[in-house]
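Ticket #4471: structure output looks truncated?

Reporter: J.K.
Steps to reproduce: submitted the chain below (328 residues) through the standard prediction queue, then opened the result file.
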Amino acid sequence: MLFRPFTNTMRVLFILLDYEDDDGPLLTEPAAEELAAVVGESFEANAYGRLSMSVDVTPVLTMPRPGSAYETGPSLVRLRADALLVAEQAGFDPDSYDLEVIFGVVHWPTAASGIGALDNHTVFINRVGPRLTVHEMGHAMGFGHANFLHVVEGSPLDPSAVEVLYADEWDPMGGGGGQPPDVDVELQFNPWFKLRSGWLDEDSVQTAADSEEVDLIALEVDPSAGDGTAHALRIRRDVASDYWVFLRTETGEPLEGPIVTLGYRSQNSNIMQSRLLDMTPGSIADSGPNPRSGRRSTPPRSRTACSRSSRSRPTSTARSAPCSARTS
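Returned output as attached by the reporter:
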């Protein structure tokens, strides 16, 4: 079981599998070393250097049973047990690692490219890619999906809104998790996930108490390189959820206007979830979700004006956005 905060050093074991009835392994050892470096850099960048990821890679290990033996019954339990066994036989001690990531051709009864929920200690991957690996490891760390709350008309909180799974494509826990390996944009987890992981301090998050103007710096900016300006504005919705207002820079040039997400815990679990609020109702039918409402702006800073209603919900004169923003 992994425990927060995720700081200092996290030891990860990449276990590479092959089966006697397959044509070859999913991943070679040199390719896995390269993947480990990219994944480690991604988490370390998200953590602003507060997390160091140490990844060991096994050689390709042949499983004791054919792949077909893992396709029925408690397949993942059986597959994990045998994977840890062959890793131990190769001289590794899986119990000394915080997380193991098992790579192999798919032999479980699901179409998923990866699974990162088993006991919060094990990740299964059957398709090679750094974004997918980061996404599934995020699940093992307690991050749920970053979804999109789509509305056709009305406000982002209209009762007719429909939750679209994975559709926050700027977050590794949303559609960003499925980006191809050659995408070099460094995707950042949202501030709700970062705060709960110990990567952002409470000093980097300003909680709105009343109508006010707040200066924000972009999520990608290292707190140690800033001047104490907050990374995010948190607006309390109820005892179980908050609105989060923040900026993303994507390729280094921020877009004017805030991103607004709803952060909450999934029902009857400790899994953190987020929903990107629809800032341009109806847009997903044409070009996909667009959380931003303005033009590109050069400085990675914005001044956000938000107000709270008596029901603790952000309000604004702009019908399509809970908050309005202008560059400072």
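Triage note (M.O.): checked the attachment and the full token line is present. The chain is about 15% helix and 30% strand.
Status: closed, working as intended.
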